[in-house]
Design a protein that fits this description.
The protein is mainly beta. 15% of the residues lie in helices and 40% in strands. The strands form two sheets. It has a six-stranded antiparallel β-barrel. Residues 1-8, 10-17 and 121-126 have low confidence and may be disordered.
């Protein structure tokens, strides 16, 4: 199962003639007007959920404006550039601007992904990280600020988070109903170590928040 936004909004907002497939691929993206204090483009984590040769839909913690330029780097697809064409409740659809030769290469990659997307073997290691089915949640900061976030991955002991905030290492905050401490920052987000280890059976329910009714 993919998040509800994929099955509902995406099929109604896009009616392309080219082949469109549903996937769940991690990636990074940056928006033209989102920059840090040094004037550098900020990078956020995302998940590609719907792809064709002409456009791609991303679930993302920060949404830009229609027409805004986007640069994305998606696992198995590589670097993609384009502009936002549709705003979704939990992300956006962006066009794919490529040369004719690049489009042919992209079409080959899409075909390969479609054939092999269900062949990935699950990671059976203890405390292995996994991508939650619903990656959206809320962060609660110490000052009471509440904001949307994207959970990149989860384990019984921690999570990878992407949000419109760059907390310092050592910052205490809560994702969903789990309190943790920021232990590392990386491109696109930060790592949170939970104050208490969680059960594998309940960690996803505790960490994620689904506002849809």
């Amino acid at each position: 199962m993919l998040p509800d936004v994929q099955a509902g909004e995406l099929t109604t907002c896009e009616r392309d003639r080219d082949i469109r497939i549903f996937v769940s691929l991690p990636g990074l993206y940056s928006l033209a007007n989102r920059r840090n204090a040094r004037g550098e483009r900020r990078t956020f984590a995302c998940r590609a959920v719907n792809i064709s040769e002409s456009s791609i839909a991303l679930i993302a913690p920060v949404t830009g404006e229609l027409g805004q330029r986007v640069i994305a780097d998606i696992d198995r697809l590589g670097k993609i550039e384009g502009a936002i064409t549709h705003i979704l409740s939990r992300g956006f659809v962006m066009s794919i601007v490529k040369s004719e030769g690049d489009h042919a290469q992209l079409a080959d990659r899409i075909e390969w992904i479609e054939k092999h997307k269900n062949h990935d073997a699950p990671d059976q290691r203890a405390h292995a990280r996994f991508a939650p089915k619903n990656p959206y949640s809320r962060l609660l900061l110490a000052d009471g600020t509440l904001m949307t976030c994207l959970i990149i991955d989860l384990s019984e002991t921690g999570a990878g988070i992407s949000a419109d905030v760059e907390p310092k290492v050592g910052t205490v905050l809560a994702v969903g109903a789990i309190v943790g401490r920021v232990v590392r920052r990386f491109v696109g987000g930060f790592a949170l170590k939970f104050a208490e280890p969680q059960s594998r059976d309940s960690v996803e329910t505790m960490a994620t928040v689904n506002d849809q009714k």
